[in-house]
Design brief:
By secondary structure, the protein is an alpha/beta fold. About 45% of the residues lie in helices and about 15% in strands. Helix 4 links the parallel strand 4 and strand 5.
Length: about 240
């Protein structure tokens, strides 16, 4: 049917933030395998360099919370952008609010919310001109539930969820798709980086892997362009959430 076009990742320009490890690595790997030209970003140069060499993708060290870093990235990528995956995030500090200092609170908001907004602004400017594109913002199951000690992280991810829904309404007339991917337990560095206990090996083996997340992102990219998934929630059967 005329107009029911499927985005072919081959030749597309894609940016994946937090692309050096975890889900971001899996996303970049999957997009590259489908023929996209992929850029990965992150704050740790040595991690990015290693990942870029393994994946044969482009990279640029950047802090998503910095407008200047976003400008440097988009200047390097060029005037065209087909896919932006705002994957960068982190628990920063998972603790009672009264035990978090102001710097940690601000860093969590910058990393998990503000950074994605800054990236979406710049991506949308390019995509509106092309009247085409896909933005994927990676949220968290925490955006929908309240667990002790996750207050700031939850606020940031819930904000990202609602921001994405509104951005979808703004960009829909320009044929631009905006999707929120909401994962839960995953085989990533989140727990270790946040100072949380690691899952038992048997449970970890049943979590969502970076490769599985990569396959999901590719499927979203290559779904017919006249359809959109406003949100995709994915979690392992191993994890019980009560009440759900």
């Amino acid at each position: 049917m005329k107009g029911n076009k499927i985005m072919d990742c081959s030749g597309k320009i894609a940016v994946v933030t937090g692309g050096g490890t975890g889900y971001g690595y899996g996303m970049a790997q999957a997009l590259k395998a489908r023929g996209a030209r992929v850029w990965i970003t992150g704050r740790r140069r040595e991690v990015l360099e290693k990942a870029a060499a393994e994946l044969q993708v482009d990279y640029l060290p950047a802090d998503v919370g910095s407008p200047a870093d976003w400008d440097r990235l988009f200047a390097a990528v060029g005037p065209r952008l087909d896919i932006l995956v705002n994957n960068a995030g982190g628990g920063i500090k998972i603790a009672p609010l009264t035990e978090q200092d102001d710097a940690e609170i601000l860093q969590s908001l910058h990393t998990n919310l503000l950074g994605a907004i800054l990236g979406c602004k710049r991506a949308a400017q390019r995509m509106k001109t092309a009247r085409s594109g896909l933005i994927v913002n990676v949220s968290s199951i925490c955006a929908h539930y309240g667990w002790p000690n996750f207050s700031v992280y939850t606020a940031a991810k819930a904000g990202l969820d609602k921001f994405s829904r509104t951005l979808y309404t703004e960009l829909r007339p320009y044929n631009i798709r905006v999707t929120v991917v909401t994962p839960s337990w995953g085989s990533t560095e989140f727990s270790r980086a946040a100072g949380l206990p690691e899952a038992a090996p048997a449970a970890a083996a049943k979590m969502m892997s970076p490769a599985e997340m990569g396959r999901l992102i590719v499927r979203l990219c290559e779904f017919p362009e006249h359809l959109v998934f406003p949100e995709v929630m994915v979690q392992p059967l191993e994890q019980e959430i009560v009440p759900f």
